[in-house]
Amino acid sequence: MSMKFQLLFVFLFLHKFAAADLNSDRQALLAFAAAVPHARKLNWNQTVPVCTSWVGITCNSNGTNVIKLRLPGIGLTGSIPANTIGKLGALRVLSLRSNNLIGNLPSDIPSIPSLRCLFLQHNNFSSVFPASFSPKLNVLDLSDNSFTGTIPSTIQNLSRLITLNLENNFISGTIPYLNLPSLKVLNFSNNNLTGSIPDSLKRFPSSSFIGNPLLCGSPLNPCSAVSSSSSPSSSPSYFPNPSSVSHSTSKHKLSAGSIIAIAIGGSAILFLLLVVIFVRCLKKRDSGGGGVLKRKIAGSGKGQKPNDFGSGVQEAEKNKLFFFEGCAYNFDLEDLLKASAEVLGKGSYGTTYKASLEEGTQVVVKRLKEVAVGKKEFEQQMEILDKVGRHPNVVPLRAYYFSKDEKLLVYNYKPAGSLFSLLHGNRSAGRTPLDWDARMKIALDTARGIAHIHTEGGGKCTHGNIKSSNVLLTNELEGCVSDVGLASLMTAPLTMSRIAGYRAPEVIETRKVTQKSDVYSFGVLLLELLTAKAPLQPSGHDEVVDLPRWVRSVVREEWTAEVFDVELLRFQSFQEEMVQMLQIALACVARTPDMRPNMEETVRMIEDIRQSDSKNRTSSEAESNIQTP
Ligand SMILES: *[C@@H]1O[C@H](CO)[C@@H](O)[C@H](O)[C@H]1NC(C)=O
Ligand SMILES: *[C@@H]1O[C@H](CO)[C@@H](O)[C@H](O)[C@H]1NC(C)=O
Ligand SMILES: *[C@@H]1O[C@H](CO)[C@@H](O)[C@H](O)[C@H]1NC(C)=O
Ligand SMILES: *[C@@H]1O[C@H](CO)[C@@H](O)[C@H](O)[C@H]1NC(C)=O
Ligand SMILES: *[C@@H]1O[C@H](CO)[C@@H](O)[C@H](O)[C@H]1NC(C)=O
Ligand SMILES: *[C@@H]1O[C@H](CO)[C@@H](O)[C@H](O)[C@H]1NC(C)=O
Q1: Cβ–ligand 4 contact at 157 (below 6 Å)
Q2: Does the structural domain 2-222 have CATH classification 3.90.1010.10?
Q3: How far is the CA of 157 from the centre of ligand 4 (A)?
């Protein structure tokens, strides 16, 4: 039984009574099974209960209706008669993908009024494009079939549509006006569509439209005056030149002259760009004061005179930047203060700068505020942090400086930024979505980093401030936990509002972070990875999203694509893994601390996802197929 079903069973208490409704659903299913031959046996046996024992069936919580029917890849052949599946009046999810279904798609199926997800890809349906749909549809996937006809304008009525995949069919005609704000995934590729692409769909990449030789307009090539009148008999040279389509001939029509012109233009632009970069570098170098760390630090302190910082450092102490063993850096405090700096962020514990030293080294300098402990204790804590930092998934502390007026920490610089910026920054077109493998890896890296923090230091160490902006990434997208172990140095435990979205419920009362509250915060971080919803809005907004509560409410209601990040929708073959990850996340955000797994267990559970999955994939592809939409 798939994890997905287990997940549902967690939430759906299955009552025994079956009302008349379920009887009619059962009859509809049996009629379907009788009419459509299937290579693998469905154990749809009259004598066992439909809701708990029939393959591919999910019922609603009170067991009165079938709400999901998932039979992907089980060798269904032939065509589906009307009045079978179409009679499942409460159906929300139908997946018959990757079968050998042919012929007509009965019109009563897409128009089931409660239907939200319809997955029919990878069959060979050859009917004309259906005209009437459930107004609640979120996902319509008819790709890789032989559908003909035109895209009906009724699609415009589907205001909840998120995914519309029609690629690899024989759909013709023009694309109707479609203004669907919730639409996130669209693919019309490899059909026979003509005319211009409506303005409202320009936001999709050209790969959503390729393989339609008579289609034009942004993001494909512009429509010429003649081609927009879409007369198929006009000379082919008027037709657009969809960049990635092979049958374009106009590529060869570029004259030698225009090629040279393009080349010259291109190198001119490149040259200009280089000049601009060069000038900017020069400016940065001789900007003297403006960007220098010393000034930044001095200027940022409230009520401090600009010179306070420099004078606060005694002459004798000037080189007392303490480096940890094995650190390859060789600069002193003076070098560091002279480095050009930019503010990376103002966090819970102070301001963070990126400092670029003269010899090209880049480091992160964290300037702590409100340090409560004395020198001795500070140094002891630094020793612990040095030990805790010696793990590939923890950002290591390289050096520190302590004086009465200044406390600075020096870390390695991670150029790829934080998980927060990767997940939530620049989600507009053109960005590379964070794929599922990368997210799995970041989740595991982060879990390992936190588990290391928890075991190192005699099981007493906590992180206390786990959030996506504290997970930094290398260029290879390895996740590293930062901001480790600073909580114990501070006067106030933590500015509570700063961690609001990640804060375990018990921390609100006790104001104490524990390892189990770290687990909770990590669970929220997992939910963030899965849903791409930020538990904390970027600074300036007070709004806090209670992500665990939101996810529970969606999942309790039903399991659909709705809970997952739309950027993950294209990785449908991994939905099993996503659901397993969701389960782990929900276990971590259990309200009572004792119910949460510890970090080591969490690491093992995440590791198991991939292992169990690769076993499934190799041993019984079809078996694992069954439960995925
Ligand atoms: C249905 O299940 C019962 C008990 O599991 C079994 O005895 C019977 O043969 C099954 N009927 C069919 C048609 O498979
Ligand atoms: C079962 O639950 C559905 C909603 O999920 C509701 O519409 C229906 O009335 C319920 N039926 C019974 C018999 O409680
Ligand atoms: C799909 O069906 C059409 C006829 O409707 C047939 O010509 C074609 O070969 C079929 N394709 C596949 C892959 O079975
Ligand atoms: C759907 O769209 C068609 C035409 O585009 C319109 O006639 C019809 O009233 C719409 N239906 C709903 C339910 O909005
Ligand atoms: C594509 O459309 C053109 C004109 O609209 C038509 O002549 C042609 O037969 C169509 N091709 C296919 C494969 O449907
Ligand atoms: C659309 O489908 C085509 C053909 O399967 C594929 O090459 C293309 O990458 C897809 N585009 C998007 C945006 O998914």
Answers
A1: yes
A2: no
A3: 6
